[in-house]
Amino acid sequence: MRHVGTADLKAHLSEHLHAVRGGEIVIVMDRKEPIARIVPFGANEGGLVIRAATRSLKDVPMPPPCTLVSDPVALIAEDRADRLL
């Protein structure tokens, strides 16, 4: 696995892609922070598994409904009262 900066990646893209073709993983860094990973095509196949749901949506606990009673226009008017004239 090699770590390269963005400027180095731009300047030597074909070299890095050649290494990826050879099976190497390239980590792209931006000021010592990893921002991307270049992996050989097909390397992640089978890595993500989507499982079937184990319960129905009706069985999932939901929060109680919101019971706030408010008038949005009154709230805006109250908020802007100090800005009028």
Q: Could you characterize the architecture of this molecule?
A:
- With 85 residues, the chain is α+β, with helices and mostly antiparallel strands.
- It has a domain at 2-38.
- 28% of the residues lie in helices and 18% in strands.
- The chain is built from 3 helices and 3 strands, in the order βααββα.
- It has helices at residues 6-11, 13-21, 72-80, and strands spanning 2-5, 26-30, 33-38.
- A 3-stranded mixed beta sheet has the order 1-2-3.
- Strand 2 and strand 3 form a beta hairpin.
- The radius of gyration is 27 Å and the shape is flat.
- The protein starts with a strand and ends in a 5-residue tail after the last helix.
Record keyword descriptors for this entry.
85 residues, three-stranded mixed beta sheet
Strand segment tally:
3
Shape: flat
Supply the number of helical segments: 3
Q: What is the H/E order? A: EHHEEH
What is the radius of gyration?
27 Å
Termini separation comes to: 65 Å
Structure classification = alpha+beta
Biggest sheet features: 3 strands, mixed
User: Going across the major beta sheet, what is the strand order?
Assistant: 1-2-3
Helix content: 25-40%
Tell me what portion of residues adopts beta-strand conformation. 15-25%
- Given as residue ranges, the uncertain stretches (5+ residues, pLDDT < 50) are none
**Average predicted local confidence, pLDDT:** 88
